[in-house]
Amino acid sequence: xxxxxxxxxxxxSRRFAPSEAFSSASEASSELYTSAKEDRLExxxxxxxxxxxxxxPFTETLDWSTPPxxxxxxxxxxxxxxxxxxxxxxxxxxxxxxIHWEGEPxxxxxxxxxxLTAEVKRAANxxxxxxxxxxxxxxxxxxxxxxxxxxxxATVRLGAAHSVVFGGFSAESxxxxxxxxxxxxxxxxxxxxxxxxxxPLKAAVDAALANGESSVTNVLVVKxxxxxxxxxxxxxxxxxxxxxxxxxxxxxxxxxxxxxLFVLYTSGTTGKPKGILHTSGGYLTQAAFTHKNVxxxxxxxxxxxxxxxxGWITGHTYVTYGPLANGATQVLYEGxxxxxxxxxxxxxxxxxxxxxxxxxPTAIRSFMKAGRxxxxxxxxxxxxxxxxxxxxxxxxxxxxxxxxxxxGSAPIVDTWWQTETGAIMVSALPGLTTLKxxxxxxxxxxxxxxxxxxxxxxxxxxxxxxxxxSEPWPSMLRGIWGDPERFKETYWSKFPTLDAPKYFAGDxxxxxxxxxxxxxxxxDDVMNVSGHRLSTTEIESALVSNPIVAEAAVVGxxxxxxxxxxxxxxxxxxxxxxxQTAAEASALLRQHVAKEIxxxxxxxxxxxxxxxxxxxxxxxxxxxxxDVAEGREIGDTxxxxxxxxxxxxxxxxx
Length: 654
Ligand code: PRX
Prior knowledge:
There is one protein chain. Helices cover 32% and strands 23% of the residues. By secondary structure, it is α/β, with parallel strands linked by helices. The longest helix is centred in the first third of the chain and has 17 residues, at 113-129. Adenosine-5'-monophosphate-propyl ester binds next to helix 13, strand 20, strand 24 and strand 25.
């Protein structure tokens, strides 16, 4: 974010107090903050007992004796799938709809808790028959169909962990994730619907498993796209055949609170994505607690819709685990917001009477651009709470969201969190907080956040600094899969106070006079494109893996629609300079990045240049490239080894 936009953010003075009616009917009371302040650990222990069914109750809340490795509720035992399914049926809520699923072509299915439980039991039996057991990893590479959620729950019902890989990622990305976690089984689909067409998924799985040894023994294939697929006998099995043949009854076993629940890969500052590990009891506690209180959920009457794909953390915590643990009724939509027309999301809200809606600023900005006349054609009066996640929401988008989607009255919760934090960490509570457009505001009860300067001291308002989490929290990541050193180094080495290291989130933030937090974006080499995390280094590695490239530098440039956009500067190998035009080379390389990583990483622009700006020690000065990419005056070049380089680059690009 530029200093101009920071200034205008901090001068945002509009305030929206909760209405009397909303507050008095709200789930959360200020008692939450008081009790968390009095005794933070006792607060979380209470929440763990209130929100989670324990097969064996825990006696110890937190073990922080070997930081940064935390254990929460360690001697307790639970089954996460039982918590999301069976217990609702046993409580007499089996007939409540768990999922209203909407396929992109217009097909739909409504599934009750009893039906979902029955399906997950069969799927668990089918997976167990293929040898899946506690300690295994199941890779899930699916479109957004109910079977994606069913596969997640069946995996964890068995005490195994899943690794969901977003369906938009390439075969190459899938392969590295399968290998890194030694996945035993892959659950996929023939294809899924997107933008009016079937995109093939099974083919990518085939490619990912094609060369060399693999840990994968079977591939379960859901029939969705009806597209042709290749078949490897002995390895590939149709999901429906296995489910049909499976026993219907399955009793959920209890597993320790710290049993791995899932690993989810996310981009960091180095080339290789890291497998973020989450475990069971603490994760489920914070997922369910935040889902209930941040969204003011009333499970008997609300219809909740989070638009995230299960391939991202938001889809894990606020599509699968939080809502289902709370017995909520939710909408799941397979496709894109503009298929077959730009009213699709609003039509779905009207059809199901969605009352809580959770999406990303990038989507809101694109709807703003298309105009309010589109949502205005639909009855959105059922909406009572709106949520935002993934990047800072600019005040104008906030106001539009509230006015046009929220009928001028729905509170907006701007929720800050990360793949690593597992669940929401900073957010307003809609019945309690006076809202400030553009600010994520306050830590949720039981969470300790600080804004520190580089030297580790707390910054005073209105100054900016680095956001840290100062105390361990239940849904915190437990590590990076297979790499404890990288875990310590990445998150805990910046502020390493011996007995109480602080978690460094990688985000810059300001705190204002009221103590409200304003997020300012990443301070590391991580970009945020449409709310998705991408690493500059990972894209640079993809570019230099192409034989025509000698060197590459990638920056995240401010972009009105996507927040940031990927912009690359590439030097071609000398024998390539005349082999094609710059336009041809750039088109070829954009495609290459999409193939290596996935379409979300495809650069918006690639500039073919003769040199890159480097310091005398050879470090690329991305800050200067960012100036060029954002069309700004170029900043201080005095530390460059060759101070004329930037002039040459900008002259050429003009
Ligand atoms: O920079 C922050 C931004 O997204 C990053 C985390 O990305 P990821 O792990 O993919 O999780 C996204 C969904 C939880 C953070 O480091 N971010 C997320 N939410 C917000 C945000 N930035 C500002 N405001 C938010 N509400």
